Amino acid sequence: MKLHRLRQQLLTQDSDALLIFSDLNIRYLSDFSGHAATVLLTGKNSYLLTDYRYLEQAKAQAKDFTVICRQREKQSLASLIAELLQQEQCRQLMFESGHIDVNAWQQIENETRRLDTIKQIKAVTAAVEKLRYCKSEQEITAISQAAQIADQALANILPLVKEGITERELAIELEYQMALLGSEELSFATILLFGERSALPHGIPSNRKLKVGDLILVDFGAVMNGYRSDMTRTYVFGKASAEQKQVYQLVRDAQQAALDALKPGIKGSDLYRYSADILQASDYKNYAGEGLGHGVGLELHELPFIGPACGQKIEKGCVITIEPGIYIPGWGGIRIEDDVVLGPNGVEILTRAPKGLLEL
User: Fold this and answer.
1) For labeling, which of 81, 150, 203, 229 is most exposed (least CB within 10 Å)?
2) SS3 sequence, 146-207?
3) pLDDT tens string 210-223
4) Nearest residue to 342 (alpha-carbon basis) of 228, 262, 268, 274
5) What domains, with CATH codes, occur in the chain?
6) Which residues of 252-266 are buried (b: 16+ CB within 10 A; e: fewer)?
7) Percent of the chain with pLDDT over 70
């Protein structure tokens, strides 16, 4: 089905061949989870080109593809691609321009332009990414499983929170718990910050020690079958101040406004506005984060990117994050983030760790 839809794209652009270089796009199309691979899709055939290191893995995983093992010392990738294009009598070639470096592409282009059959070479962007926009039931299940691992890992470390523990120590423990629970890898580098450092939207855990009254911001995710989760929770160590409670409720209201507005066909910019209007009407409008969220799947950040300029519509099967935040330098930051999917029964929240302002 995926290959059929991609071939339909080729037809609409009067092309009969597409070169795919992105590891993630190759995995999406073929189930091959290795590296050092290139896919050539023609009107009739699907080729996966790799070398001896990944040959057996490619044969086992990419069952709908003709797997070709290139002998690296005897044949360049460019010459192998040209050979296949000649064999297939391809005339119009498209290639993923955003996933190959200039030197590598120049070699391929030089070889293919020597062919009598090739009449046009055209760069394309997001050809496969557009197919990845709406997730299948299998993909949603994998993201949900990753989210469940993250939920449990977070629950496992909360009893370890104590005065004097460092950001780095707690982050390492969280990552260890995800690994024990079956996460294949980290979805991304864990963000775990205390106190004033929680105002850094993508701060790196440090040796900063936890003190009574500190905010604790934790943004992290697990991976299952290549699919990623992404969740943020914010806590207070000790009794929350009036301002901490006020800002937390503001962020939660902004997130809930977006969740309530989410429905098939809504534009990303409109969804953003439901949340942003609440933040912009507050005394903290100058400290609001710029965007609302993003798609999540094989990549941590996928289409759509939800913000004021997002003209894409959110459709059934889209898995997105909703993550408004307030970041006040010298004071701290509060972000609440969930993975949500527009399923057959409406909005489903995949990340289920409690969201109340827990006073640890």
Assistant:
1) 203
2) HHHHHHHHHHHHHHHCCCCCEHHHHHHHHHHHHHHCCCCCCCCCCEEEEHHHHHCCCCCCCC
3) 999 999 999 999 99
4) 262
5) 2-124 (3.40.350.10), 137-349 (3.90.230.10)
6) bebbbbbbebbeeeb
7) 100
